[in-house]
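The following record pairs a protein chain with its ligand, 2-hydroxyethylsulfonic acid.
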Amino acid sequence: MSKIILITGASSGFGKAIAEKFAKGGWNLILTARRKEKLEQVASELSIQYGIKTHCLFFDVQDKEAVFTQLSHLPSEWQAIDLLVNNAGLALGRDPFDQANLDDWETMINTNVKGLLYTSRAILPYLIKQKGHIINIGSTAGKEVYKDGNVYCATKHAVDAITKAQRIDLLPHQIKVTSIHPGASETEFSIVRFKGDTAKANAVYDGYKALQAEDIADVAWYAANVPAHVCINDVVLTCVAQANSMYLHRP
Ligand code: NDP
Ligand code: 8X3
């Protein structure tokens, strides 16, 4: 029987690449995001190309009621979830602490932290039955704080802490919990961060080859396919031009 993966934020970037990697591997997909048209396009392309089943859900992970309503009552054929990937997230702005926009702070906290918490709790009854696996997408920003990264870095440090807490508290249920912490990766991330300013967004990736979404999908695939007794706890990956959040070499 095919396995089932649920990916939040599957309409672009890492989520979309992870969807493709697992579809190629024969998994059925539950895909979530806010942008209906984009998500439906991802789902229909993958189901045609790889002959797998897809189930799309459209909601904002910040909306607690929507998360629990949509995820707590899945159709019976979609309840045996083997893997949850908490990927939906964003950065908004890159400004000093005394100048950053308070609404941006709240959106990042509500999405990256609360959204991940709500989604995990809503899916947990299914994961417990299935002895499933959670992969949380953190960041190098969750390992070191960088200048003007303040609240984005704080949310990703929270993802790191929540991952560790989940691994401890879910031990009696034998649920694997993994975090993947990528460095700079070329997706829609910087366009969102700089609110549509493509020149600023493109400058982030100028002069070096950043990670690609497929690199993160490869790591997720590896972590999901190790033997049953093995849990990959924590993976940090960067492109070769980057050592950590602070050190980037542009030749
Ligand atoms: P993208 O902007 O390409 O993708 C973000 C995804 O998250 C989209 O599918 C978006 O879908 C979804 N999303 C955002 N906010 C919400 C929300 N409130 N409710 C539901 N879905 C939401 O960026 P990435 O693929 O790069 O980012 C994915 C994750 O990886 C994020 O958590 C990010 O912080 C993290 N990350 C990114 C890095 C990078 O350099 N790119 C490096 C390290 C970590 P939609 O808009 O349709 O709702
Ligand atoms: C995204 C990577 O360095 O822009 O999490 O924070 S970085």
